[in-house]
Amino acid sequence: MLTKRLDRWLPLMESVGIPIAALLLAMLIFAIFVAIIGQSPATVFYLLYQGGFGSAFAWQNSLLRAAPLILTGLAVAIPAQAGMVIIGGEGALALGALAGAVAGVALSGLPPHGVQAGILFAGMLGGGVWIGLSGWLRHYRGVNETISSLLLSYIGIALLNHFVEGPLKDPASLNKPSTRPIGDVNMIGNLPGMEVHYGLLFGALFALVTWIALRFTTIGFSLRIVGGNPRAAQMAGLRVGWWVVGAAAMGGAAAGMAGAIEVAAVQGAANASVLAGYGYAGILVAFIARQNPLAVIPVAILLGGINAAGGILQRRLDMPDATVLVLQGIAFVVIIASETLSGRLRVWRSTPAPVKPAIPATGASV
Amino acid sequence: MKPIELLQPASGALDLEILGLSKHFGDVAALDDVSLHIPAGSFHALLGENGAGKSTLVKCLVGYYTADKGTVLVDQREVEIPTPREASKLGIGMVYQHFTLVPSMTVAENLVIARGALPALLNWREERARLAAFMETLPFKLPLDKPAGGLAAGEKQKVEIIKQLYLQRRLLILDEPTSVLTLDEADEALGLIKQLARNQQLSVLIITHKFREVSAYADAVTVLRRGRYAGHGKVAELTVDQMAEMMVGSAVARDAAPRANRPAIPEGAARLRIQQLTALGDHGLPVLKNIDLSVYPGEILGIAGVSGNGQKALIEVLIGQREKSGGKVQVHGKDYSGRRAELALCKVNSLPEEPLRNACVGNLSVADNLALRNYDQPPLARSGWINWRALRAQAKTYVENFRIKTDGIDAKIQTLSGGNVQRAVLARELSHPVDLLIVANPVFGLDFNAVAETHSRLLAARAQGTAILLVSEDLDELLELSDRIVVMSEGEIVFEVDAAHADIRELGRHMAGSHALAEATA
Ligand SMILES: Nc1ncnc2c1ncn2[C@@H]1O[C@H](COP(=O)(O)OP(=O)(O)OP(=O)(O)O)[C@@H](O)[C@H]1O
Ligand SMILES: [Mg+2]
Fold it and tell me: Is B454 helix (H, G, I), strand (E, B) or coil?
């Protein structure tokens, strides 16, 4: 029966259709914005495409940016499985970078692969502890995790700046305060045949493993119970606190790894340049991907491309390269607004969608 | 009782007629061509099995659902009710099984904000005076200045009803309003409503599974069966058996299992032993004070008590939803803390009350929810990998064996009717051998067939040697099922009796608390 088959695909259509529609709407609003500031929307979109995906060089640029975005996207998507909204990826990334740089220097002398592993591990640990703290505050102290993760994020960024400009500053880094370099031999190299470092692969693997764990193992099942109804989780004998802290820490570990990769594959040391806003853009990635770890990969590449195209807009049209941030901002607002639509779109349903009986007639209470 | 002047609305009770109402969810016809008529001032009961479409019908009336087909007439005039706002304008109000009060606000604030269109600046003195005058007209008192969150279930439900009266409704719809109330509370609330109906101030449409309430209060009934109209009649002209027959479509045999045929309780060590158990409530005050209890294999221990005397906290501690602050809980002679590994090892299962809130994940599928107990055990999982095929097969078996009405095993469990959620939990908790079963009000919201079935399943588990701890607010249920009954009052066990020799009045006295007992003996 046709309606039956339609119904089967409804959830998928909804979860893919709504974000795509939202992105299209965001592009429309952006086009209006572009027209108002006196540029041709068509040219801008063409350049965005050119700058992001129009050539092998553009692709490399986009993929380089996608690598950290995948990981910071996971920093939001993993805790979301347990019902948390974490927005502190930038701070976890900062601490990951700091911890990675410290580990890199401390371990120098070991074989390069050992050093690299140590850097990544230290980065994950740094970020994981930080966001894990947010999870802990939420479960054991009742502090809203969205706010605590944001505040912790500011502290994390401040810690990075403090150590880079203070106790851990390399005296040789004059115009750009940095920690001591981890050394060229210890740098993470490029993927074979590409100008893109291994970080992209690590990020994609992290996402893939997460997706498999969530989809096919009891870990994902437990997490969905904890995220869906903590009381039922308690009844089922799950340690809710443990899972909440664990999911937050795993998210933090992903962001921390992004920071460590920035150090080990790009900067060679921890410094303020690792703070390029990937932590914040990761929130957008996760929301467009509807918190699906696998979908995080293509979305991160898409946003990486848009980011990469910022430069070309500046060069060709003399627009500020923050223009792409405007697009991102618009997309973010539209995506968040579209979240409320899921399960309620009439066009998706063979019968009118039920309105949840959450708001009583008088609008009095919940 | 004084006349209720303040409730004198312009137009009083309304006349409601529904013609040919239909509502589909996907392929499921929740309602199919249903008609009914409620004359002004009539107290009308809507009956039907679990999943018959009763809640769907009334949700169409208050604008939460939009019917696919059909007409609604108010005072013989056709009306459209696309959203709750229109229902409110027409004077149609609803009281739910669950609560809609803002827990952090006081009762008074809850009543005032319910009025909806409020001025930007509230004159609290005036509002309070109005409220006070209104409360004068009521047969019972409400703690106006208490936060709604701190009220017991019975009190909350009364506030919900009062709220509707305060809003001067012309038609009051009640969806299983008394499941959280004691017998007396239910009589108080329904009595008040009945009186208002008799005075032509309100028309009433009530959904209930309790024939007692139908016989005592309703003027007429309409019965639904699988979404279709199955009959109606005047209560005075119908027997309970006739109504039951209309509900299921065939003659019904209703008999309680005679106590005499029960297998004897085998000798043995206690399966569950609770010693000196204490726990704190949400506000940090002790709710459990040195509880000592044992439940033996093959025994049903009933716990009686007026709601709000610690039974809920006891269940919560036992199923891991509340930390104990002292004492010991032992299962099979070993300390027990409710961790997942222990649950599986000791075969401890539970049927908590409000299953959607306490025992299910509403936005996960029926299949997932049915696997909550064993998703990490073979055959559903091996070394951490879930076998989705096995998981779905299990769900299909349960749905079939327990006749759970659902739009497939992939439907979210929150779309099931109240009774079918309960049935799903029952299927999950009773399909495997159980050593210890923790049960709280297991038949809330179940139709009479399902009640009988649930009771016989509990007795069957008992016969197989399961130790059952049963909390219930229904004394008849406790007397029918239990082997031993203890009474809880103010967080303590105050009385224990062999169920075969229990006297309902004596139990009632102990439930009423120490002062009542002192008065009785004085
Ligand atoms: N939102 C929904 N989506 C899909 N199916 C639904 C939805 N709401 C109700 N149903 C289905 O409609 C049917 C009727 O449900 P309804 O809640 O009206 O039953 P009910 O008579 O109130 O039963 P109970 O006595 O158990 O509360 C059920 O089969 C239910 O699964
Ligand atoms: Mg119902």
Answer: helix
* Residue B170 near residue B13, CB atoms below 8 Å: yes
CATH number of B16-238: 3.40.50.300
- Shortest Cα–Cα distance, B61 to chain A (Å): 11
Q: Give B322-376 pLDDT, tens digit per residue.
A: 999 999 999 998 999 889 999 989 999 999 988 998 999 999 999 999 999 999 9
C-alpha distances in angstroms, B191 versus A107, B69, B346?
80, 35, 47
Q: Which of B55, B175, B405, B421 to mutate to test the pocket of ligand 1 (most atoms within 8 A of CB)?
A: B55
**Does any domain span residue A131?**
yes
What is the C-alpha to C-alpha distance for residues A201 and A242, in angstroms, rounded to an integer? 29
Q: Which domain holds residue A118?
A: 69-308
- Whether A17 is covered by a domain: the verdict is no
Pairing of strands B300-304, B484-489: parallel
- State the DSSP code for B149: G
User: Residue of the nearest CA to atom 22 in ligand 1?
Assistant: B55
How many structural domains comprise chain A?
A: 1
- Over residues B153-179, the pLDDT tens digits come to 667 777 888 888 888 889 999 988 877
Taking the CA of residue B375 and the nearest CA in chain A, the distance in Å comes to 7
Rounded CA gap, B252 and B259, in Å?
21
**Residue of A221, A342, A350 to mutate when probing chain B, most B C-beta within 10 A:** A221
Q: What is the ipTM of this complex?
A: 0.83
Does A358 contact chain B (CB < 8 Å)?
no
Instruction: Please write the tens of the pLDDT for every residue from B380-417.
Output: 999 999 999 999 999 999 999 998 989 889 999 999 98
Q: Residues of A with CB below 8 A from B24's CB?
A: 351
Peptide bond connecting B379 to the previous residue in cis, omega within 30 degrees of 0: yes
Sign of the torsion formed by the C-alpha atoms of B338, B343, B346 and B351: positive
Whether B346 contacts B435, CB under 8 Å: yes
CATH superfamily of B297-310+347-521: P-loop containing nucleotide triphosphate hydrolases (3.40.50.300)
Which residues fall inside 5 Å of ion ligand 2, going by CB?
B 55, 417-418
Residue extent(s) of CATH 3.40.50.300 domains in chain B: 16-238, 297-310+347-521
Q: Which residues of B touch A242 (CB under 8 A)?
A: none
Cα B160 to Cα B145: distance, rounded to the nearest angstrom: 15
Gap from B373 CA to chain A (nearest CA, Å): 6
Residues 236-275 of A with CB under 8 A from B: 236-239
* Nearest C-alpha neighbor of B458 from the set B437, B487, B479: B437
